[in-house]
Write a structure and sequence with these properties.
This protein is mainly alpha-helical. The protein has one domain (11-137): Four Helix Bundle (Hemerythrin (Met), subunit A) (Up-down Bundle), CATH 1.20.120. The chain has helices at residues 11-29, 42-66, 78-86, 93-111, 117-137, and strands spanning 34-35, 38-39. Strands 1-2 form a two-stranded antiparallel sheet. Strand 1 (34-35) and strand 2 (38-39) form a beta hairpin. It is globular and about 45 Å long. The model has no long low-confidence stretch (mean pLDDT 92).
Protein backbone atom coordinates (compact mmCIF):
# COMPACT_ATOMS: atom_id res chain seq x y z
CA UNK A 1 0.00 0.00 0.00
CA UNK A 2 1.48 3.31 -1.06
CA UNK A 3 2.47 5.79 1.66
CA UNK A 4 2.34 3.20 4.43
CA UNK A 5 5.14 2.50 6.85
CA UNK A 6 7.31 -0.50 6.16
CA UNK A 7 5.26 -3.48 7.21
CA UNK A 8 6.76 -6.21 9.39
CA UNK A 9 7.75 -9.39 7.59
CA UNK A 10 6.92 -11.79 10.42
CA UNK A 11 5.62 -11.80 14.02
CA UNK A 12 9.08 -11.39 15.54
CA UNK A 13 9.77 -8.37 13.37
CA UNK A 14 6.42 -6.84 14.34
CA UNK A 15 7.02 -7.30 18.08
CA UNK A 16 10.58 -5.96 17.82
CA UNK A 17 9.18 -2.86 16.12
CA UNK A 18 6.48 -2.53 18.77
CA UNK A 19 9.01 -2.63 21.62
CA UNK A 20 11.35 -0.25 19.78
CA UNK A 21 8.60 2.27 19.06
CA UNK A 22 7.44 2.09 22.68
CA UNK A 23 10.94 2.74 24.00
CA UNK A 24 11.37 5.60 21.52
CA UNK A 25 8.12 7.16 22.77
CA UNK A 26 9.32 7.05 26.38
CA UNK A 27 12.67 8.52 25.35
CA UNK A 28 10.93 11.42 23.58
CA UNK A 29 8.85 12.21 26.68
CA UNK A 30 12.00 12.35 28.80
CA UNK A 31 13.09 15.34 26.69
CA UNK A 32 10.33 17.60 27.98
CA UNK A 33 10.05 18.94 31.51
CA UNK A 34 6.85 18.54 33.50
CA UNK A 35 5.35 21.43 35.42
CA UNK A 36 2.03 21.42 37.29
CA UNK A 37 0.98 18.12 35.72
CA UNK A 38 1.60 19.08 32.10
CA UNK A 39 4.41 18.45 29.66
CA UNK A 40 6.01 21.76 28.73
CA UNK A 41 6.95 20.93 25.12
CA UNK A 42 4.03 19.88 22.94
CA UNK A 43 6.32 18.80 20.09
CA UNK A 44 7.81 15.92 22.06
CA UNK A 45 4.40 14.87 23.36
CA UNK A 46 3.00 14.75 19.83
CA UNK A 47 5.94 12.70 18.57
CA UNK A 48 5.84 10.35 21.54
CA UNK A 49 2.08 9.90 21.25
CA UNK A 50 2.36 8.99 17.58
CA UNK A 51 5.22 6.57 18.23
CA UNK A 52 3.41 4.83 21.10
CA UNK A 53 0.22 4.53 19.05
CA UNK A 54 2.21 2.89 16.26
CA UNK A 55 3.72 0.51 18.81
CA UNK A 56 0.26 -0.77 19.71
CA UNK A 57 -0.61 -1.28 16.03
CA UNK A 58 2.62 -3.21 15.46
CA UNK A 59 1.82 -5.52 18.38
CA UNK A 60 -1.57 -6.29 16.83
CA UNK A 61 0.16 -6.88 13.49
CA UNK A 62 2.48 -9.34 15.24
CA UNK A 63 -0.42 -11.28 16.67
CA UNK A 64 -2.20 -11.39 13.32
CA UNK A 65 0.95 -12.47 11.47
CA UNK A 66 1.40 -15.24 14.06
CA UNK A 67 -2.15 -16.39 13.29
CA UNK A 68 -1.28 -16.66 9.60
CA UNK A 69 -2.60 -13.35 8.24
CA UNK A 70 -0.42 -12.26 5.32
CA UNK A 71 1.37 -8.92 5.42
CA UNK A 72 -0.79 -7.51 2.62
CA UNK A 73 -3.95 -8.37 4.60
CA UNK A 74 -2.98 -6.55 7.80
CA UNK A 75 -5.42 -3.85 8.96
CA UNK A 76 -5.11 -0.43 7.32
CA UNK A 77 -7.44 1.60 9.55
CA UNK A 78 -8.35 1.90 13.21
CA UNK A 79 -11.71 0.30 12.44
CA UNK A 80 -9.97 -2.75 10.98
CA UNK A 81 -7.62 -2.95 13.98
CA UNK A 82 -10.61 -2.78 16.34
CA UNK A 83 -12.34 -5.59 14.43
CA UNK A 84 -9.17 -7.67 14.66
CA UNK A 85 -8.94 -7.09 18.42
CA UNK A 86 -12.53 -8.18 18.90
CA UNK A 87 -11.57 -11.57 17.43
CA UNK A 88 -8.69 -12.02 19.89
CA UNK A 89 -10.03 -13.47 23.16
CA UNK A 90 -8.90 -11.43 26.15
CA UNK A 91 -12.07 -10.54 28.08
CA UNK A 92 -12.38 -7.17 26.35
CA UNK A 93 -9.21 -5.85 28.04
CA UNK A 94 -7.32 -5.43 24.78
CA UNK A 95 -10.18 -3.64 23.08
CA UNK A 96 -10.56 -1.30 26.07
CA UNK A 97 -6.81 -0.68 26.13
CA UNK A 98 -6.84 0.14 22.40
CA UNK A 99 -9.70 2.59 22.96
CA UNK A 100 -7.56 4.41 25.55
CA UNK A 101 -4.52 4.36 23.24
CA UNK A 102 -6.52 5.70 20.32
CA UNK A 103 -8.23 8.46 22.29
CA UNK A 104 -5.46 9.53 24.67
CA UNK A 105 -2.48 9.22 22.37
CA UNK A 106 -3.65 9.35 18.78
CA UNK A 107 -6.46 11.89 19.08
CA UNK A 108 -5.64 14.00 22.14
CA UNK A 109 -1.85 13.63 22.36
CA UNK A 110 -0.99 13.68 18.67
CA UNK A 111 -3.74 15.50 16.80
CA UNK A 112 -4.92 17.93 19.45
CA UNK A 113 -1.64 18.50 21.24
CA UNK A 114 -2.81 17.38 24.68
CA UNK A 115 -0.08 17.74 27.29
CA UNK A 116 -1.72 16.30 30.43
CA UNK A 117 0.83 13.96 32.01
CA UNK A 118 -1.75 11.56 33.48
CA UNK A 119 -3.60 11.25 30.15
CA UNK A 120 -0.40 10.41 28.28
CA UNK A 121 0.77 7.99 31.00
CA UNK A 122 -2.59 6.23 30.88
CA UNK A 123 -2.18 5.82 27.13
CA UNK A 124 1.36 4.50 27.53
CA UNK A 125 0.23 1.99 30.17
CA UNK A 126 -2.39 0.73 27.74
CA UNK A 127 0.19 0.39 24.97
CA UNK A 128 2.37 -1.63 27.33
CA UNK A 129 -0.58 -3.87 28.22
CA UNK A 130 -1.31 -4.52 24.53
CA UNK A 131 2.30 -5.28 23.63
CA UNK A 132 2.89 -7.53 26.63
CA UNK A 133 -0.38 -9.44 26.28
CA UNK A 134 -0.01 -10.06 22.56
CA UNK A 135 3.71 -10.86 22.56
CA UNK A 136 3.16 -13.48 25.29
CA UNK A 137 0.18 -15.12 23.66
CA UNK A 138 1.17 -14.56 20.00
CA UNK A 139 -2.31 -15.33 18.86
Amino acid sequence: MKGRLTLPKNPGDAFRQAYRYFENAKELLRKTPIEYGIYKDEKYVKEASAMAYLASLRAIDGCLLHKGVSTDKLPASITEYEKALQRIPHNGKLFAAMTIVYQNLHIFGYYRGGVDVEMIKSGLNSVKLIINALSRRKG
